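SAMPLE LOG
Freezer: B-3
Tube label: C17
Construct: single chain, 311 aa
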Amino acid sequence: MFIRPKDYISINNKLFFAVVSENQEDDRALTWLRYVKNEHGLQKQNTEEAGKFIKENYPEYIFYSAYADITLHGIPLEDIQKVYRPDQTVVNLLNMASPDAIQQDAINIINLFIEAEIKPETIGVTGSLMLNTHNQNSDIDMIIYGRDLFFKVRNLIQNHIKSGELKLLDESFWQDAYQRRACALSYDEYKRHELRKLNKCISGNTKVDISMVPENYERVPENGPYKKIGKETLMSVVIDDAYAYDFPSRYLIEHVTINEVVSYTATYTGQAKKGEKIEASGFIEQGSDGKKRLLVGTSREANNEYIRVIT
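STRUCTURE (predicted):
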């Protein structure tokens, strides 16, 4: 089955899982529960809530990934009833006759990109807008498929901010973003790093957060299966940041035993640049080739795990 990170899958129109890897093991999709439908509608789950819910109600979906050496929600492919694709959400938005305010804000920024010759099929919208569970406090979670296009879009955002068609985040939006992240960094640290990434803006009255999923031919070959061999905090210099916005983000580092720092957590995407010294805390993983890497973010919130640039 063709699925990509940031896609969602549903079971019985009740459980909605975010796909966390394009890899499939034992005919299962590797995912994590994000929404549960009840009498009040779709309820968003944080990492702890989702883990508890599946353990208590659907233990058959608890799956140990031998490749990643981590427990995820592994959904048998035969159980998947629907795949929600962010690029299809863009098609749906552009064909809406009567969009609401947030949908219109999404349509407006999509059209800005299309006018700059970004093909609509390379743009995605995921999260609550994709599942039609958004409310007045929701963000627009956009995806660009392809590394070069993503960097082009970052430049477009800055140009449209200068022209006034898009806006910078104000303090209230930054505070809200920080609360949602629930990360190990202080607010000042979080904001300092985020301001450099140029992947957030305001369209109309709605915050837009843009991430990237590399195309198949752009993906960095991995050396799994991986085994976790302990927790580590290190300091090192980044020697290559070419894949800093990938999924996962990667930072090649100058270190005696560890080759790279990787993170699946959005907070640490684009976190550091070539030549900068970082402090990183996470889990050491050893690949099948014997090389070691530091994984930051074994959960969405990445409690007690972080990457920070040392100034």
